[in-house]
Specification:
Radius of gyration: 25 Å
Number of strands: 12
Oligomer: single chain
Strand order of the largest sheet: 1-5-4-2-3
Number of helices: 16
CATH topology of the largest domain: Rossmann fold
Strand content: 5-15%
Number of domains: 2
Structural class: alpha/beta
Order of helices and strands: EEHEHHEHEHEHEHHEEEHEHHHHHHEH
């Protein structure tokens, strides 16, 4: 067979493919980077087996589970694994390195492939990610871009990335723009575990001798949260850069960046309801009316003046000493040439 039937986290790169045999629902929540999902139990089948285990007996559950698993592995052999060469080396994992991955490994090794089971399964990987995030987070020197909403921080990160600087775009990882209006239409956010895996992957790719450019974020970005150790490292070791831009330019940038609301005013009207407790019904009704009228300029101006800018100033006041030490980059406008000039200034 060539290799051992069991492998550990440190050996991931030695395999041709990583196969997650958990259910599609488990896979969607989080999985090893690059893994493919070949479930040996469907979402529904896992519920059936679990119910048998609790209500009948472990033996009955194992018997039914073996029936499901055998059929599903046979289907994978006919479809996903058909034509794989004799020297193909897959790594298989399930929740904790038990029956599901063990069954797949046994059959693949009987065929003649050097299949291996990940020791400890997904749980071992998850423990590795959590521990490694704690170790990695303080190693880097963060250059933290702060500034009022619409001042061009995200565009600066995009240009810095094109210049091959080390950029950590937390909003991109979180699939959310980090404010009450930050949800991206038809795009679900990753789970908390999935977000942490993406963050871990990104930090792993960085060189600790070079700065990491990142936008200042609150602890929560939509439904996911920054890990405590990472958030503390970014705050304690971060070099703050305050990005400033004219009010009119910020309004234009936000209108350009939120085109999805222009096509569907009902989306922004629903999100504005989340501000009801803070701003009151009269103000929310006015803003929703502006959305219905398509008066986006007035709506964005008022959102900045009465919600976003006061929120930013309160946050800055709470960390006055920290913000006082920030370097300031002033942008006369937010056109591509101004953003490029600012990015060059930052990398130099």
């Amino acid at each position: 067979m060539g290799r051992n039937a069991v492998a550990n986290i440190q050996e991931l790169a030695q395999f041709d493919v990583i196969i997650d045999v958990r259910t599609p629902a488990e896979f969607a929540l989080d999985h090893l980077p690059g893994a493919i999902n070949c479930p040996v139990l469907s979402n529904e089948q896992r519920v059936i087996v679990g119910t048998l285990y609790k209500q009948v007996s472990p033996f009955a559950a194992r018997q039914r589970g073996a029936q499901f698993i055998s059929r599903n592995i046979a289907e994978h052999l006919e479809k996903q694994f058909e034509g794989k060469p004799k020297d193909w080396q897959p790594l298989i994992y399930c929740w904790r390195g038990g029956m599901r991955s063990g069954a797949m490994v046994h059959i693949l090794r009987q065929v003649g492939w050097s299949a291996a089971q990940l020791h400890g399964g997904y749980q071992a990987f998850r423990r590795h990610v959590v521990a490694d995030l704690e170790a990695l987070s303080p190693r880097f020197r963060y250059v933290v871009l702060c500034g009022k909403t619409g001042s061009g921080k995200t565009r600066l990160l995009e240009v810095l990335d094109s210049m091959h600087a080390q950029v950590l775009d937390l909003e991109k990882l979180a699939e959310h723009r980090g404010s009450v209006l930050g949800a991206i239409p038809d795009q679900a956010q990753p789970s908390q575990k999935g977000f942490e895996t993406l963050l871990w992957q990104k930090l792993q790719s960085f060189d600790a001798s070079k700065p990491v450019f990142v936008e200042a974020e609150s602890r929560k970005i939509g439904s996911v949260s920054l890990p405590i150790t990472f958030a503390a490292a970014m705050q304690d070791k971060g070099q703050l850069i305050t990005v400033e831009a004219p009010f009119a330019a910020r309004v234009k940038l936000l209108i350009d960046g939120y085109q999805h609301f222009l096509a569907d005013p009902s989306a922004i009207k629903n999100l504005l309801e989340h501000l009801l407790e803070l701003r009151g019904r009269e103000t929310i009704n006015r803003w929703q009316s502006l959305a219905d009228q398509g008066d986006w300029t007035t709506l964005v101006e008022e959102l900045l003046e009465h919600h976003y800018d006061p929120s930013y100033l309160r946050s800055a006041k709470m960390r006055a000493g920290h913000y006082a030490a920030a370097q300031i980059i002033e942008l006369n406008d937010l056109d591509p040439s101004a953003i490029n000039t600012a990015a060059k200034q930052l990398v130099s």
